[in-house]
TrEMBL record:
The keyword Transcription regulation does not apply. Residues 243-297 form the DUF2179 domain. The chain crosses the membrane at residues 31-54, 74-94, 101-120, 132-151, 172-193. Residues 1-21 are annotated as: Disordered. It comes from the Bacteria. Residues 1-12 have a biased composition (Polar residues). This is Uncharacterized membrane-anchored protein YitT (DUF2179 family). Keywords: Cell membrane, Membrane, Transmembrane, Transmembrane helix. The keyword Cell membrane applies. It is found in: Cell membrane. Coiled coil: none annotated. It is a multi-pass membrane protein. One of its GO terms (cellular component) is plasma membrane.
Length: 306
């Protein structure tokens, strides 16, 4: 291909304003908040590990759990194993998943490694393994959840699960559970079976807190309602729940009849009230409720239930 002799010939042509290519909006504030959330999350993971779990011989799942066991066996700082063991998986993540995810995970792992090194001399808050498992699991789950919300991960095993998921019928969650079953079982041989069971408690608590951190306690739900009294039900939902509703056009596959479908997004706390409203107007109405992981835009806001 010939190189243009005029450097300006490589510039974009002078198109009308409405035909100029659109650039995706970037927000420095959004990027800063994402980094801040990730740093806070990774910091919380470090606190959970060094202040609660490690000194009580309680492990987490994944690469973190393996790192805790190796640190105990070889008497080396935990941060060394967190970094070294995660690097190969981060390379896989970079190649197969994307550089943003890989670099975000690398940043989280490095913060965790440095954080555990700084917190290693700190005296544990409790030596009661049950309390350590409970509070360590809560803080660990909150930290991991924040990192995930920021677009990263804290453990290379999640990258492995994502890659295996692409070639097998198993979900990412099922693969992670399978991997962690063997890791948590191994803790029984290293720390004893009591500590392995405490580790299972901590892991379960962390797992649930991750969901709460990502979805919120006041989880959103999507609702589809099919009823001949759609207008009355829609008005009641608007007046009594303060929710905006959308009417969709539907058609019965068997009867071919035209139907109106009500679509509305509510919070978990409003579900019972919604069902009562629908039941008052049409006990035979078709009602489907599903969980939503995230809601943005529109007029969705938390409302008082009347």
């Amino acid at each position: 291909m010939a190189v243009p002799s005029n450097p300006q010939s490589t510039d974009r042509p002078n198109l009308p304003q409405d035909l100029q290519p659109l650039k995706a909006p970037t927000s420095k504030a959004r990027v800063f908040m994402r980094i801040l959330v990730m740093l806070i999350g990774a910091g919380l993971v470090s606190v959970a590990l060094e202040v609660f779990l490690v000194n009580n011989n309680i492990i987490d799942g994944g690469i973190t759990g393996i790192s805790i066991m190796l640190s105990h066996l070889f008497h080396l700082p935990l941060g060394i194993f967190l970094t070294v063991l995660n690097i190969p998986f981060l390379f896989l993540g970079y190649k197969q998943i994307g550089k943003t995810f890989a670099f975000s995970t690398l940043a989280a792992v490095l913060v965790m490694s440095v954080g555990t090194a700084l917190l290693a001399p700190v005296k544990p808050i409790t030596f009661d393994p049950l309390l350590a498992a409970i509070f360590g699991g809560v803080i660990l789950g909150a930290g991991v959840g924040l990192v995930i919300r920021a677009g990263g991960s804290t453990d290379g095993s999640e990258i492995v699960a994502i890659l295996i998921n692409k070639k097998t019928p198993f979900s990412v969650g099922e693969i992670i559970m399978f991997i962690n079953f063997f890791i948590l079982t191994s803790a029984g041989f290293v720390f004893g079976w009591n500590n392995a069971m405490y580790s299972l408690i901590a892991y379960f608590i962390a797992f649930k807190v991750i969901d709460i951190t990502n979805e919120g306690i006041d989880q959103s739900k999507s609702v589809w309602i099919i009823s001949d009294k759609y207008k009355d039900i829609g008005d009641a939902l608007t007046q009594r729940l303060g929710r905006g509703v959308t009417y969709l056009e539907g058609e019965g596959a068997y009867s071919g009849d035209s139907k109106k479908v009500i679509f509305v997004v509510i919070t978990r706390l409003e579900e019972a009230k919604l069902k009562a409203i629908v039941g008052d107007w049409d006990p035979d109405a078709f009602l489907a409720v599903g969980n939503i992981h995230d809601v943005k835009g529109g007029r969705f806001k938390k409302k008082d239930i009347h």
